Predict the 3D structure of the following.
Amino acid sequence: MAQRIGTWILGTGGLNLKLIRHEERPDKEQWKDGPFYRIKDVFSVIEGSWELEPGRKYSIDEWARSEYWQGARWSSTGAHNFHVMVLDKAGNPMMGNGILFRQNDWSWQPENVHQASLKGDADVYLFNSYAPQRGEHGSWIGTTLGKADALAGVDMPLNEHVTVFCVLQESEETPAPDPAPDPTGDLAELIALQKAANAYLAKGAYRTRTPPGRDMVGAYSTDYRRWRDAR
């Protein structure tokens, strides 16, 4: 699935929005089951206009205007709103799907869930101002229920009437598992002992005669203690 990002979405010269992959979300442990969604498209319009205005800040991109039928694929558009649409693998709208909007943090509550329309979308009204050129981000986060990417930092740049559209699509991709945590306690000690043993054998010590009263494990342990004390 190719991802398309509008001209004015990223960076301090634009809206300075944040596309957050599921793997990077601070709340990802809440979402273990069900389909997996990636952000497919993100774009903006200025003052509700779907007309091409090359060079005008926050205006619609030609690919987005064509793909989304000058706004007809959305249940509404508005002059300063944040829209999220969810599609299945075939690109069909997922009617009734749960879409999430929340300001400032990831502590989702029942009132943050919006039911997708017949066109697979939902939206919230934007009313806060922020200054992207100073590196600021807006307050709104949008995504869908389940394992999904999210779009964050949405609001009105310097009170300009900008509407942001985000499209999520069900993906064939499987999220990468979290890396295994570093071993602790007895397991860490055992692994360290094994490393010391390997280092001892690599020095060719197994070819020499072990001194009387000192078995091989004792030799390994000595090397391990040296390794541990040197950490």
In short: The helical segments are 62-67, 185-202, 216-230. The chain has two domains: 4-170, 185-230. Confidence is low (pLDDT under 50) at residues 205-217. The first helix runs from residue 62 to 67.
